[in-house]
Known about the structure:
The protein has 203 residues and is mainly β. The protein contains two helices and ten strands, in the order βββαβββββαββ. 8% of the residues lie in helices and 57% in strands.
Amino acid sequence: MSMNIIGTVKNGGVFDVKGKDGSIKQMISFTLVDGLGNTFPCQMWPDDKQFSDLAKVIGDYRRHQVQLSVAGYTVRMRTFKDNSVKPWANFIVSDVTAPAAASQLAMSFSGTVKAGSVNRPTDASKKPMLWFTAVDDLGTSFACQMWPDDPKFNEVAAMVDAGVRRSPVQFFVSYYSLRERVMPDGSKNPQLNFVVSDVAFSR
């Protein structure tokens, strides 16, 4: 039960990062691109058992295809070179290997549904949307959405209506979206949503 990505390395390297305590440690950083053109900013830290071996070769992995597992992710507001501030996600990865032959370049997931619902606005000008939260075996939560332009929307919506809590689920990620969300207490936090497809629930 995990989130996995198969894609092509766009660029990567090993970088020195200053911690909150002022210490300096190394971090592997690379960008992975899937078959739909989605980009995934990936990081690996020294506490990963693969760190030393990957650090030696990541600089030569440009245009190489790899598969990996997502151990977790972080979302923050990032200041860019033009001084704009936007939400940004980093995927903490592990188990970076060469993919099996003829594998689909995509982000895929297998895990368990924590909760879900279908939102059907009374305002006809607004689109319905279904959502569910999926959890992997590490307890990492992934906020998932599906929109009516997906060919399986009505089928999946009917299953969510019937109740899929605690059901095993598998899906592919079509893309992900980042936005700054206003919380009930008025605070603003960055939020990451995964727009999913090919959803299959097991009872």
